[in-house]
Fold:
Amino acid sequence: MAVPKRRTSKSKQGMRRSHHHLKSKGVQYCPRCNEPVLPHRVCGQCGFYQGRDAIVIKTAAAAEGS
Ligand SMILES: [Zn+2]
Structure:
């Protein structure tokens, strides 16, 4: 099995790990209810997407009525 010839220096280790940070998600806000939503996703609170109701959100009140 191949074995590293020498220990990775703290400098090289740091250089490698400099890319390990997490990228923040591009959070946007729903134009109708102002809840935070991810881009290109339907709003989880009101079902709004592309200027219309993409999905119907079931609420406790709506479930009782039907
Ligand atoms: Zn919304």
Remarks:
- Residues 23-65 form one domain.
- The pocket of zinc ion is lined by residues 30, 32-33, 35, 43, 45-46, 48 (CB under 6 Å).
